[in-house]
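Interim report, section 4.2 (structural modelling).
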Amino acid sequence: MNDNLIVSVSPHYHKANATTQRVMLDVLIALCPALIAGWVIFGIRTLVLVAFSAANCVFLESVWNRLMKKTDTVSDLSAVLTGVLIAFNVPVGMPLWQLMIGDFIAIIIVKMLFGGLGCNFVNPALVGRVCMMLSFTSSMTAYQTSVAKIDALSSATPLSALDSLHIGDIGTLLLGQHGGMIGETCALALILGGVYLCVRGVIKPTIPACYVATVFVLTFLFNGFNAENAVLSLFSGGLMLGSIFMATDYVTSPMTGKGRVIFAVGCGFLTVCIRLFASSAEGVSFAILIMNLLVPYINDGTRTKPLGGVDE
Amino acid sequence: MSLKLLSGVHIPHRKNTAEMPPVRMPPPAMVTIPLSMSIGRPASCVVKPGDHVDVGQLIAESGGYVSSPVFASVSGTVKKIVPVLQFMGTSCQGVQIESDGQMTPAPDLAPPEITDYNSFINAVRNSGVVGLGGATFPTAVKLDVKDTSRIQEVIINAAECEGYITVDNRTMLDRTDEVVAGCRLLEKWLDVKKIYIGIEDNKPSCIAKMTEAFADDPCVEVRTLPSLYPQGGEKVLVYHVTGKIVPEGKLPLDVGSIVMNVTSLASLAHYCATGMPLVERWITVDGSAVKEPKNVIAPIGTSSREVIEFAGGLKEEAGKLVQGGPMMGVAQCDLDAPVAKGTSALLVFNRKDARPAEPTACIKCGGCIDHCPMNLMPMEFERAYEKKDAPLLKKLKIGLCMECGSCAFQCPAHRPLVQVNKLAKVLVREYDAAQKEAAK
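Predicted structure of the assembly:
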C-alpha cells in the first residue's frame, strides 16, 4: 500500500466534457441568437437587462451559499441561465428594481430555499415572470415595438390581436418585429437555438415538438378551423421560448421519454385553454408551471419497464 | 434483423494494442497465486511451504461445485501461504511460489481422455478455466447443463466492448486454431447445433479471420455487432444475437443460450489438446501513465508491477491501477496486486486521470435512464438508496443492474451511480435476510 494509489468504484473514465456546467453553457449559447435578435429589435437596453439580471442572480446565489455556509455553486452557470431567462421574459422598458425582485423570487424563494439546483419543483424563471406579471402588470405589459425602422406590428402583443393578423404577417412574427418580451419575439432565433440544443444532445426534440404540435392542433380545432390563425398562434407570445427553453428544463420536466410526451401535450393543452378561454391573452407560463407540479405524478406513472423484469 | 438495439454508451475505444501480438515475459522470481479467482467458493490449498511444484501442477482443488481449481504457474518451491487483499476489502489465501526460473512442466500432464458428456465436463472442471472476460464464472458450471437438448445455441462472446483491452481480439487472430478446436468440442460433446460468434464492428480483422476460419462450418455464424458499450454484457449479447430476453433471476440457459468468452474457449481447447491447465494470462497493459502499451503473457500470480515493468514501465507517477477495463475494472490498492485468472488488463492512469470528478447535484436530465441497457432508472435507485428504501429498490429492479457503468459514464453531475447501486444491492440483501428471519 505504499504506492499511494487512488481507489474508486468503476467506471474509471467519463464521457468527455459531460458536466453540468457544459450543459448550462450550451443552453446559454443556444440563447445567443435570441439575445442578438432582442438587441437588434429593442436596442441596447436589452443587453443591459440581460447582463443585470444574470449578474444579480449570480450575486444572490453566491450570497445565499455564503450565508448558509455551503459550497458556492455559481460556477455551474445555472444561476446565469436563470438570470438570462428572466430578463428574456420582460419588456425592454422594465425598471431594473422590478427585475431585481423577479430575480430574487426565482433564485432565493424558488431555487435556494428548496435546496438549490436540482431540487426546485417549478421553473424558477417562470415563477419570476409570473410574479412580476402579477405585481407589476403595467410595466410587464408595456410592450414596445422595434426600434429598428422596419414595418412593425401594433404595439400590443400579437396574440391579443390575433384575429386581425394575416398569414402575410408571418415573416414579421418569425423575425420578431412586434411587441413582446425581449427574448421571445424572434421565433427564428429561438428555433435556431433549439436546433443547436438538439444537435448537441442537450435536449431531445420531444418536448418542443409535442408542445407546439398540440398548440397547433387544438388552436385549429377550438378556433373555428382557421389554419392561418393556428399557424400564427405558434409564433406569437411566449410559445417558442417556453417550449424550447422553459418546458425542457431538466429539473422540472419528466425523466422518461413517455413522460415528456405527456408533459408536453399537457402544456400545449393548458396553453390553448388559457389563451382561448381565460381572461389572460398568454398562457405559456401558467401552463408550464401547472405541468411542473404534475411532474412527480407523471414520473411515477411512466417508469421504464426493465428488460426481463418480472412483476411480483 | 430489425431488432431494436438496447441503449448503451459510446465509450472511447483506445484499442492501442490491437495490432500487437502478445509478448511472453520471462518467469518472475516470485508469484503469489490467489486461491479465490472465480465466482463461488475459494479453492482449497493442497500444497504446503517447502513443497516443490511444477508448472500446471494442482496447488488448490475446487472448494465446491461453484469453484475452480488452481494450478502452479511457475516451477519452484512453495514459500508460504499469505493473505491476499481483494476488491471489496476482503482477503483470501494466496500461495507464494519462488520460481526456479526453469518453468518445468509437471511430468504427469497429459491431454484428458474425453469419451462422453461427463468426461468432457470433468475435463472442463480440471482445466481451471473460468469466464476470462472478467466475470470469472467457472466454465464447468456454465457448461454442465445436464440435458444438452436445453442448449439452442452457444454465443461466443468476442464483443470485447471495454476500452483499451485487446486480449480477445488477439486470441481470435493469434489463437484461431484453438478457437476453432473449442467450437468443435462444444459441437461434439454438448451436441451444440448453432454457435454464434459475436464481434463488435470495430474489429474488422477479427471478423474476417473468424469468417474465414469457419467458412466450411455451417454450424458457426459470425455476427457483427455495433460498437456500443456494453455489447459484451451477457444479457445484452443474448438479446442482440437471438432477440431473446433473459428474465430476472434466470440464466441465459433458461432461454436456451450459453454465452462463453472467446479466450475461455481457446484456453479450454488448449487444455484438451495439451493437458496444460490455465496457468497464464494474456494481459493488455495500457493507460495514460504507461510508457508503451503492450500485450503481455504473464504467469498467473505475477505482481502487476512486474508485468508493467516488463511492458516498458511507467512514464508518469501511477495514480490508479485498474485490473480489467476502464468501465468495469477494479481499482487496486497497490501496484503489487497479483495477476489473477480474470485480469484481462492492467491499466495505469496518471494522477490527473485517476482522480474522479467531484459529484455535483443531480439535475434530473434523465441521461442515466436513457442510456441504461436494461431500461433501469439509476437516478431513482440513488434516491431510494438515500431513503434506505429496500422495497422500492426491489420494485425498481436493482437486481437487474449489471454495474456496466453506462449511467455513471455519461452523468453530467458525476454522480457515483455504480457505487450507489452496489451499496443498494447490499441493502436489499440485508433486508431480504431480515425478512426471512422475521418470517421464521
